[in-house]
Design brief:
By secondary structure, this protein is an all-alpha fold. It has a domain of about 80 residues: CD2-Gal4. It is about 60% helix and about 0% strand. It has 24 helices and no strands. The chain is elongated, with a radius of gyration of 34 Å. Keywords: Metal-binding, Nucleus, Transcription, Transcription regulation.
Length: about 500
């Protein structure tokens, strides 16, 4: 307690607190005393002379000191994490979520995608709502036939909403759709350059979105189909990383079968299977190269039937895993996923130089037979999964074929498996030549080109040994069909160039 005999406490001196202000902890005279050149007793907030003369008393650095105090107060740690006041989501938030996801989760933070600026040239390329609908309609009638990773009903139903809240991501997807189905004479088009730059801009902004991943897969298909390497190989790897960042690789491990969210779940599942297919397809040319993605297990869920996918109405009884897939109603994309699973085994056998391939061959041919039945039932001319499966068997045959072991003593016959593949591929080639090639090429996938090349390469060797007219004619049929597909996929010119080089090498042997 204070008494009347106690003197009043002196006013505080103008000395900054060392623990908070560091180098600003100095003694100073007020501005008025310094200007009058008189001795200041430095009493804070007003010195004695200024009080006596009733003049303003200002100390130098006072505003800076107050600002610094407020900044320090704002960043001082508090004991309760739940009471932390965090800034709005920025690119630093995304970095934090990657560098220490545990702390990021405990702090109850959430990354919100940034609004990416859409330039006038992008807007002009995309066009109006009617233009977007026209672009998507062409896409769903072409590339979507063999790579159905986008839900048509979902895309149409959410178009206006995405124009408002996900404009940049939607525009990238629309331009990628256009890129994937457009026929070009050279791969390095202004559209391709614009899409790649826009993709980089969105990814650099820290946006993580399924729309961006769908667009990236379509860009990878464009690069693969037009022989743009190493871009195609690197883009597929980038898709795998991006999908993992979104957690999409987990989509094949569970199925909620909930009507309200199954389309989004199914889109994620289809995207991951598409990445698995592309990763394995790219390694068919070099089976000993490491895969970017891990193999799917038998408990992995397959895509739903394509008819269900197109309708947007789920039948919970039609959901299968790799282990339970014994139905004729799986759908072509589910068969494609099965083909990816078998391709994994093919690549392992080839890289390990295993000779125990009989069972694997039978399994692949069984899948091809079922796929062909479904394709004929649904009147689809070309099954991408059949082409990939055939290419897988040829990869198993390649080591022995390169040594001439697939050719009989007469030099005119292939092994039984290769003979079946050869005839099926020749039938495809003749259908292309005698049918409406423009219409057929619109729905033909680039996977078909690889198969045509591999079979042509086999018959080129046979023709060189047999010197018969029939074998030469087969090579020319395959070449002609490849040139027709070349109007759609520019990678064909590279394959034809390789055939010419093989022919020169055979002559030189």
């Amino acid at each position: 307690m204070s008494t009347s005999n106690e003197s009043p406490s002196p006013r505080p001196r103008a000395v900054a607190n060392h623990s908070t202000l560091g180098v600003l902890a100095l003694r100073w005279s007020c501005a008025t005393c310094r200007q009058s050149k008189r001795r200041c007793d430095k009493i804070y907030p007003k010195c004695t002379l200024c009080v006596q003369k009733n003049t303003p008393c200002n100390y130098p650095g006072r505003r800076k000191r107050e600002k610094l105090k407020n900044r320090i107060k704002a960043i001082l740690p508090k004991h309760d994490v739940r009471q932390l006041s965090f800034p709005s989501a920025t690119s630093s938030f995304i970095a934090e979520s990657f560098l220490d996801p545990e702390v990021f989760s405990k702090a109850r933070l959430k990354v919100v995608n940034a609004d990416v600026e859409v330039t006038d040239d992008i807007t002009e390329l995309v066009g109006s709502v009617l233009d977007i609908q026209a672009t998507s309609a062409k896409f769903f009638k072409s590339v979507h036939m063999w790579m159905p990773i986008i839900s048509k009903p979902h895309f149409c139903a959410n178009l206006l909403n995405r124009l408002t809240y996900k404009r940049a991501e939607l525009f990238l997807l629309v331009l990628s759709m256009k890129l994937s189905y457009t026929r070009v004479k050279t791969w390095n088009t202004p559209l391709y350059e614009t899409v790649k730059l826009f993709q980089f801009k969105i990814e650099a902004s820290g946006v993580l979105s399924t729309l961006v991943l769908q667009a990236s897969i379509l860009i990878s298909l464009y690069e693969l189909g037009h022989g743009i390497y190493p871009a195609a190989y690197l883009s597929v790897g980038s898709c795998a990383r991006y999908a993992t960042a979104l957690g999409i690789e987990k989509s094949i491990l569970s199925s909620s079968a909930a009507q309200g969210q199954w389309i989004e779940e199914e889109e994620c599942r289809r995207m991951w299977w598409a990445i698995l297919v592309l990763d394995r397809y790219l390694n068919l040319s070099n089976p000993k190269r490491h895969l970017i993605t891990t193999d799917a297990g038998l408990e992995s869920y397959l895509p739903v039937d394509d008819e269900v996918w197109e309708s947007g109405v789920l039948n919970p009884d039609r959901i299968y895993t790799l282990a339970t897939a014994n139905s004729y109603h799986l759908g072509l994309f589910a068969r494609f996923a099965q083909a990816a699973h078998l391709l994994s085994q093919v690549l392992h056998h080839v890289s390990e130089e295993s000779n125990e391939t009989a069972q694997l061959r039978r399994t692949i041919f069984a899948l091809v037979n079922v796929s062909n039945i479904e394709a004929s039932m649904r009147r689809l001319e070309y099954c991408s999964q059949s082409a990939v499966c055939y290419a897988g068997i040829l990869a198993l045959d390649y080591s022995s074929f390169s040594k001439g072991m697939c050719i009989s003593d007469s030099g005119q016959k292939l092994s039984s498996e290769s003979a079946i593949i050869s005839q099926a591929t020749l039938d495809m080639a003749l259908t292309l030549i005698h049918g409406d090639s423009d219409q057929l090429c619109d729905v033909a996938s680039p996977f078909l080109v690889h198969l045509l090349y591999k079979v042509a390469s086999m018959h080129l060797r046979i023709a060189h040994k047999s010197q018969t007219r029939g074998d030469r004619e087969k090579v020319e049929i395959l070449r002609k069909s490849m040139k027709l597909v070349g109007s759609r996929w520019l990678c064909t010119s590279t394959y034809l160039s390789l055939l010419e080089k093989q022919e020169i090498l055979l002559v030189m042997e």
